[in-house]
Amino acid sequence: MAWLWLPFVLLPALMVSVAANVAPKFESNMSSVFLPEDLSVGAEAFWLIAKDDDQDPLTYGISGSYAYFFTVMSTTGEVKLASPLDFETLYQFSITISVSDGHNSPVQREMRVIVDDRNDNAPVFQNTGFSTSISETLPVGSLVFTVLAEDKDTGSAGAVVYSIEKVIPSTDDSQHLFRILDNGSIILNGSLSYNNKSAFYQLELEACDSGGLFNNSHTIQCSSPVFLSVTIIDEPDLDPQFIREFYSASVAEDAAQGTSVLTVEAVDSDKGINDPVTYSISSSTRPGWFDIGADGVIRVHGSLDREQLLDEDEEVQLEVTATETNPNIYGQQAKVSTWVTLVVTDVNDHTPEFYNCSLPACTFSPQEVQVNFVGYVDEHASTRIPVDSLTMVAYDPDKGNNGTFLLTLRGLDAEAFSVSPERAAGSADVQVLVRASQLVDYETKTVMLVQVVATDSVSQNSSVAMVTIHIRDVNDHRPSFPQSLYVLSVPEHSATGFVVTNSIHATDPDTGEWGHITYSLLPGNGADLFAVDPDSGTVTVRDGELLDRETQAVYYLTLQAADGGNLSASASLQIHLLDINDNTPEVSGSYNIFVQEEGGEVSVTIQAQDKDEPGTSNSRLLYSLLPSPHSHNFSVNPDTGLLTNLGPLDREAIEPALEGRIVLTVQVADYGVPSRSTEVNVTITVEDINDNLPVFNQSSYTFFVKERDPGVLVGVVEAWDADQTEVNNRISFSLSGSSVNRFILQGSVLGPGRAEGRLWLPLDESLDYESQPFFYLTVSAENPGPQDQEATAEINVTVVDVNDEPPTLVAASLQGIRVAENGSQHGQVAEVRAQDVDSTALLQIKLLNTICAKAGVAVGSLCHDCWFSVMPNGSVYINQSEAIDYEVCDLVTLVVQACDLLTDPGFPACSDNGSLPITIEDVNDNTPYFVLGNKTFVIIPELVLIGQQVATVQARDDDSGANAVIEFSILQVDFVSKDGTTLPLQNVFEIPTSAEGTVFTGSIELLINLDSTLQGTYQVTVQAQDKPSVGSAREAQVTLNLFTVDQSYRVRLQFSPQKEEVGANMEAIKAALGQATRTTVYVVNVQNLDSAARSRAHSYMDAYFVFPNGSALTLNDLSVMIRNDEDALTQLLQLGLVVLGSQQSQESDQTKQLISVIIGLGVALALAIVIAATVLVCVRKSHRRKLQAMKAAKEARQTAAGVMPSVAAIPGTNMYNTERANPMLNLPTGDLGLEYLSSNDQDRISLNSLDDNSVDLDKNSKGIKARWGMRWYLGLLT
């Protein structure tokens, strides 16, 4: 029987079985990759990773319009950057990655490359040439200029911070002259001056971002510096200035009128205006000598004379004033003055002249010019003795050589004298000297005459002066008085210098000094009381205080007269003193009187006397009352001195400090000429009675007291009583009025008749401004006495508001506001207001915290420092508008607090915290982007219907609201055939849009029936565009490849059940087919076969087997892959699969099956014959070997026991000793079926010696047979 099934077992083993090779596939994460834009070229970008179940070598590749960015190692999948990335140019793009195992079509997938922004861009100023002009009077704090720099980076890396790096000119003042705000506004920070500081400034500006990652480190990028040129516009605010600080020139004194002397020049200090100036002479030391023209030229206007300026250093001082033509900014004429010094130079226009004076006291005035002089000299004086009393000065006002002159003598007596000096310049004292003393003789000539000649050394002009010289005689006479005794009189106590006599004279016939008499008093009684003039002889009183007639009535003196030669004579003087009123009346006793006010009377006589002679006017007395504060109430008798009062006296009319005392002064005078008097005080004490009521110093009082301050002094009232004694002027106070129990009034004595009441708050009592701001009280002052009356005054207590209440935030100012993101708004956006019930408050708003949230979730401190700021006045400003990002934070809450800077210590100064919500409004600043999944779209034209979805795209927009709504549209459709031909198409697809959450989906649907014969790819360019309510829309595009599968890939599968059963098992069939092929199964239809064609199959199913990359399986590929998956094949057989084939080959399936069976049987028969022949040959060889083994065993038994063969055995070979037997084969004899060939038991034993090497072939053979059978059956199916 074994021969019958052996061919069927061997046939499948010899048939070639081809297993299907599975295409590789990418890992699931190979759909997108994030790369930083600062990734360097040549650096590793990412790896392409794919799996291949067949472990085939893989080849990787990248294609697409953006493939140039990368290079890929085809064998490893390592991808390196080949071209630099730039987020600002292309923040995301798609590439096509592929992998191939060399057996299947390359597997492709779209990969989305998302570029992460890095801080690789420095801010860039929008313009690089900035210039502006501002007035030099621009107020500090004004806007000068505004610059704008933009940074293409995002987030903090795109938030620009401005700075002023340098100011030219670089001075201490200019470095802080400008400041720049966060918004780029440049503010004037100090005062300008076109002339005193600079007319031009150049500001070096720099813009830096707020920092971000770049090359794996936090980097701050700064722009290239730009320069702002600021031109200062000059304003007319300065006075003109002369270009020189000092002007001087010289002019000859004979210069003609109109001669130009000097040009002055003044310019407008406002250099940028340069207003014309006019000139004038506002002051001159020599008016009329000079004038000035409009051109600033000073000219000679009158005649000049240098000699008039000798006391002025030959200079004329002019004050020249320059006045601007136009008024300055104050509406005034700007002017400046300077002094000009003009030196008048000399010309030889004067002749030397003689003056009667002595240097240096000479003024050389015309009045001093003299031609006649007088001098004196003793007769026979020695040679070179000058003539005295001669004051002669020669003077030539010219200068230098022009003022040099020669002096000579001429005349009748010129031989007796000489002149000195003989040569002089300018001026010189001229002396006439005795030259020949024998010629000077008084007895010959008493007067001599000479002429002094002064000759100009240049012009030879000369002047002559006549000198008369008187010759003095010697002393040869004594003085004499006309009489020897003179009787004189003088009033006593005459004033010092009083002339007693001026008529006594002595005479001396000598002339000159010898005839000059000098008078003197010789020592004696009274010589110290009188004096005499030595020249005139006038006798005067030396000390009048000592001349007292009552002490000595007559004085005797001797008067002496002496001449120049000490010759003298004397005369007696008898001087009588005349009486004068020189004694003052004297008062005896003291006067103190006590009298009661109102009814008391005064009567007292003043006692006095005078020591002058009785009966004369010098001793007669007169009484009078001197004026005083109370003298009008009294009178005194002028002759008797009786003092009386004129009416009732009032104690209160007297100063309290006087304690009722009135001091009167009575004057007692004589009738002498001049009259002499003395004074005496009369003290009258007026006793007090209680006749006055107390009086407040104010009719009403207003006091101020701080609230919440217990136990403090509210105020002080004061009253006084005019009575001047303590018993009559004591004062007590009392208080009345509403709320009087909240106050304490304490009285105290200030002094006599004066008291004060201190109004206090009790220690446990304080006032509250908010409860009762005013109190009205009445204070009474009483004076115990018979009248029992009192005085009252009103007290108004005003409660002063203490800053004790904290401020409160105005709720209306904390209403939410909305601010658009990304630079849409700038400046102030809100104002937080606060109020305080206190009357004095200085409120300040503080920003305590900034809370950032996105969709109700806190996002940290992203917006703490840079988005918003709150000024002390409550103004809320945007700091960095460009940094505001709705996508990061959609709600910013500013936690603010109001504080009162004037709150008193101990009270809360700040309000409760308030929150100002700022809703960040979305701006359409994000472009939609496609969310590309790992999808491949395949179109099977014969399966898709009009309106059926063939592909989908998804996109998102990071904006919100209307800005995030996306609408899809199809921009272009091209059909690319397999030969590369591109055919543009229109109206083939449409794409309605739907949304789920923030993801928008575009369903690409068919508009027309497709041609199922076309082979290629539909390239559909889809645009995703947002729909902002404001502003322009943003869009993104993507191109989808829709692969077509034509009818050549249609496969038919035949099943034994009817189509109804096949339809019921459709899902299981597709699952098994999908498991085996790893494809998507698209079923075209299921139909029953015609009865004529039926064999084992009763129905068929037409289907396509499509891979994700758009490739499809052919019939052969399908057959291989099904045979390769035994589990799927078993399941398909159980579901009734009987035949695989294409639609075109189904008509000849049965014929092919019969031919295949016949051919198979023929081949099997031939193989069986060959195998049978081979088996016979093998059996024969085996039998011969067994016989040899048996023979070997026999030889072994004949060998003696214990004797070992001489040759070692060779295990595992076919050689054993000489018999060539191999016991290691150990083949079981029963397996060969040749038991009948064995002759005896020894042979059987020998054959069984190889049992240990036996192999169980039965079990393995069964499995092999099963597999061969299944493959053979499958071969029949195909």
Automatic annotation (TrEMBL):
GO terms for biological process: cell-cell adhesion mediated by cadherin; epithelial cell differentiation; homophilic cell adhesion via plasma membrane adhesion molecules; intermicrovillar adhesion; negative regulation of cell growth involved in contact inhibition; regulation of microvillus length. Pfam families: Cadherin. Residues 27-125, 126-242, 243-354, 369-481, 482-587, 587-696, 697-809, 811-930, 940-1059 form the Cadherin domain. It is found in: Apical cell membrane; Cell junction; Cell projection, Microvillus membrane. It is a single-pass type I membrane protein. SMART domains: CA (SM00112). GO terms for cellular component: anchoring junction; brush border membrane; microvillus membrane. The chain crosses the membrane at residues 1154-1179. Keywords: Calcium, Cell adhesion, Cell junction, Cell membrane, Cell projection, Differentiation, Membrane, Phosphoprotein, Repeat, Signal, Transmembrane, Transmembrane helix. Its main location: membrane. It comes from the Eukaryota. Residues 1-20 form the signal peptide. GO terms for molecular function: calcium ion binding; cell adhesion molecule binding. The keyword Ribosomal protein does not apply. Part of the IMAC/intermicrovillar adhesion complex/intermicrovillar tip-link complex composed of ANKS4B, MYO7B, USH1C, CDHR2 and CDHR5. Interacts with MAST2. Interacts (via cytoplasmic domain) with USH1C and MYO7B; required for proper localization of CDHR2 to microvilli tips and its function in brush border differentiation. PANTHER family: CADHERIN-RELATED FAMILY MEMBER 2 (PTHR24026:SF133), FAT ATYPICAL CADHERIN-RELATED (PTHR24026). Intermicrovillar adhesion molecule that forms, via its extracellular domain, calcium-dependent heterophilic complexes with CDHR5 on adjacent microvilli. Thereby, controls the packing of microvilli at the apical membrane of epithelial cells. Through its cytoplasmic domain, interacts with microvillus cytoplasmic proteins to form the intermicrovillar adhesion complex/IMAC. This complex plays a central role in microvilli and epithelial brush border differentiation. May also play a role in cell-cell adhesion and contact inhibition in epithelial cells. This is Cadherin-related family member 2. It comes from Oryctolagus cuniculus (Rabbit).
